[in-house]
């Protein structure tokens, strides 16, 4: 099965590979001619003068062999790189499109190590193991035939020792493969942990956890090392066994062949040629051995690459959306579970066109999950989300996401300039559009302050910015697509009162143009809304305006008595199952 996968890897590169293997084979064949010439030269030198022509031919043969060998090697390395390029591109494309559930059950660092380390092992299989196995086998076979032709009796002696080595190798190959697999898994786990720790470096430092992390990641590295050592142990048994067989066979050749020459039953030329072939046999034999070892390691890596390549991706099919004109979104009896844990239970509410709806509820009530369902990161377990009456599952995800925009709580800023960051959602936006949304998000002052304005590099994940600035950049980016439905996760969380008021004005202006669904923690944000949906433990427990809810819902009153973000802990403690 995996061998098939391996062959499939090489498809598309068959010509280049065949050319490379052919060059290496020609080089090997030229090498095989050399002992024949030597034999003739030695036997001729015994009776006549030094045969210069033969010696010149041998020198030329050496030179041509080296050139052809070099060309073959280059072609192979190049093909290896290209095969890996293809694998990496396919893998990256796949990982970027995986269903979000997959990231709940796979570690990002481990997936990354499949693109980096595992593909590097694969390159070795393609560029080294393939030629080692093919040319090693063919050259080995050619050498064997020539040895048989020169002296069959000597050959049988030599084979006796070689068979012993072959049996040792065969018995160890499976274990080498397992060790290779374990090593790659260890490297994957180490990369995943390192990625996690570096991604949260500030927390690591603040918690003084460097040593603990070092210990943990070091342990993963040790596991990879232990598997590597196991592989080395197996190889260390294999290699001396082969070497012993080789040296033994040389001794046998010298002993048996020497006796035969002494008794005049074979010529010195025969013995020298045979001896040279016997030493030459070491090269293909070792090559095949190393090729088998590499192939086993490569199978482990291939397994990991193939597994990542087969993870399910988001379905991109679906009908085109109708012309723009505003979205009215309806949640109709939506149920949803993360794995087997129900998080939303029969949620129903509507976001009318150009309306402004606030979602409130305690931490863990399911507010962000509602956003994930709207973005179609996950699908409801039952029930449906309808846009202007049509189930959103009917539309292509790509088109649907083009009509809505999401500003998350962590508002990530990507690497690059401010302009790159803003245009991330709308690559064709003009500078005029950019300035419009910058003004809307109250960012013009920031642009003036930045040394290179829109072309200032923001650093990885926007480290040079404050939380509020990052949030407003995320908002400006979202607005640039002119969404028909804007999802905001507590947009004023990081803002001071001045900026908060400015952002509220911005939101108010945006709300004239599109529907707004806002996860709100602050009273000021809640009050802005046309209607408030109160969510508790995955259920909509009340809906209405601020004043209506104050009158009818005791929980809502207590929830909004202060800025309940700060008081949520005491609310949670107070709330009993019968609070409604
Ligand atoms: N990827 C996930 N896998 C499993 N459970 C999850 C996942 N994401 C969220 N949950 C769980 O689902 C529940 C609802 O989470 P959600 O993030 O929607 O709440 P929230 O109301 O947005 O909370 P907050 O205000 O704290 O952001 C929580 O109990 C949370 O533990």
- Distance between termini? 59 Å
Main sheet specs: 6 strands, mixed
* CATH class wording of the largest domain: Mainly Alpha
Overall geometric form: elongated
Oligomer: single chain
Beta-strand percentage?
A: 5-15%
Keywords:
580 residues; alpha/beta; ABC transporter transmembrane region fold; Rossmann fold; six-stranded mixed β-sheet; four-stranded antiparallel β-sheet; 20 helices; disordered C terminus; binds adenosine-5'-triphosphate
Description:
The structure is a single chain. By secondary structure, the chain is of the alpha/beta class. The protein folds into 2 domains: 2-309, ABC transporter transmembrane region fold, CATH 1.20.1560; 329-545, P-loop containing nucleotide triphosphate hydrolases (Rossmann fold, 3-Layer(aba) Sandwich). Helix content is 66%, strand content 10%. The strands form 2 sheets. The chain has a 6-stranded mixed beta sheet, with helices on both faces. It has a 4-stranded antiparallel beta sheet with strand order 2-1-4-5, with helices on one face. β9 (531-536) and β10 (539-544) form a beta hairpin. α2 (14-47) runs parallel beside α5 (108-150) and α8 packs antiparallel against α9 (268-309). The protein is elongated, with a radius of gyration of 36 Å. The relative contact order is 0.08. Adenosine-5'-triphosphate (ATP) is lined by residues 104, 338, 343, 361, 363-369. Adenosine-5'-triphosphate binds at residues 104, 338, 343, 361, 363-369.
């Amino acid at each position: 099965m995996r061998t098939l996968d391996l062959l499939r890897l090489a498809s598309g590169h068959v010509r280049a590979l065949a050319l490379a293997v052919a060059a290496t084979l020609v080089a090997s064949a030229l090498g095989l001619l050399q002992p024949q010439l030597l034999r003739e030269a030695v036997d001729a030198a015994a009776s006549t003068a030094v045969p210069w022509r033969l010696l010149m031919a041998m020198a030329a043969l050496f030179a041509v062999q080296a050139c052809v060998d070099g060309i073959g090697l280059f072609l192979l390395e190049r093909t290896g790189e290209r095969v890996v390029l293809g694998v990496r591109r396919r893998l990256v494309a796949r990982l970027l499109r995986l269903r979000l559930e997959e990231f709940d059950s796979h570690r990002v660092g481990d997936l990354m190590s499949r693109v980096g380390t595992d593909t590097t092992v694969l390159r070795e299989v393609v560029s080294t193991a393939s030629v080692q196995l093919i040319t090693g086998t063919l050259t080995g076979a050619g050498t064997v035939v020539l040895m048989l032709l020169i002296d069959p009796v000597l050959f049988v002696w030599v084979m006796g020792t070689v068979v012993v080595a072959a049996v040792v190798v065969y018995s160890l190959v499976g274990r080498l493969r397992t060790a290779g697999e374990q090593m790659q898994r260890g490297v994957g786990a180490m990369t995943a942990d390192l990625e996690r720790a570096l991604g949260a470096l500030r927390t690591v430092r603040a918690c003084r956890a460097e040593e603990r992390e070092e210990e943990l990641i070091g342990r993963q590295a040790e596991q990879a090392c232990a598997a590597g050592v196991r592989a080395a142990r197996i190889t260390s048994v294999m290699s001396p066994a082969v070497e012993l067989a080789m040296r033994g066979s040389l001794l046998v050749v010298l002993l048996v062949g020497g006796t035969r020459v002494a008794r005049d039953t074979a010529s010195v030329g025969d013995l020298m040629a045979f001896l040279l072939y016997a030493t030459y046999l070491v090269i293909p034999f070792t090559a095949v051995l190393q090729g088998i070892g590499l192939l086993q390691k490569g199978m482990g890596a291939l397994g990991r690459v193939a597994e990542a390549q087969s993870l399910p991706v988001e379905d991109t099919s679906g009908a085109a959306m109708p012309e723009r004109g505003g979205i009215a979104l309806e949640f109709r009896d939506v149920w949803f579970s993360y794995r087997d844990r129900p998080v939303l239970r029969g949620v129903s509410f509507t976001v009318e066109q150009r309306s402004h709806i606030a979602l409130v509820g305690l931490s863990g009530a399911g507010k962000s999950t509602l956003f994930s369902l709207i973005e179609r990161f996950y699908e409801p377990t039952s029930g449906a989300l309808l846009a202007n009456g049509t189930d959103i599952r009917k539309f292509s995800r790509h088109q649907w996401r083009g009509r809505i925009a999401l500003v998350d709580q962590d508002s990530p800023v990507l690497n690059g300039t401010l302009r790159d960051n803003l245009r991330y959602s709308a690559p064709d936006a003009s500078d005029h559009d950019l300035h419009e949304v910058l003004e809307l998000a109250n960012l013009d002052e920031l642009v003036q302050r930045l040394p290179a304005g829109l072309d200032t590099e923001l650093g990885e994940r926007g480290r040079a910015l404050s939380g509020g600035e990052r949030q407003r950049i995320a908002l400006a980016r979202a607005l640039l697509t002119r969404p028909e439905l804007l999802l905001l996760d507590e947009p004023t969380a990081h803002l001071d009162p001045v900026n908060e008021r400015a952002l509220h004005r911005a939101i108010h202006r945006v709300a004239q143009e599109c529907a707004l669904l806002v996860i709100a923690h602050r009273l000021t944000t809640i009050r802005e809304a046309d209607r408030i949906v109160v969510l508790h433990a995955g259920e909509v427990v009340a809906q209405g305006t601020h004043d209506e809810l104050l009158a009818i819902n005791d929980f809502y009153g207590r929830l909004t008595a202060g800025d309940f973000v700060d008081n949520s802990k005491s609310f949670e403690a107070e709330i009993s199952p019968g609070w409604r």
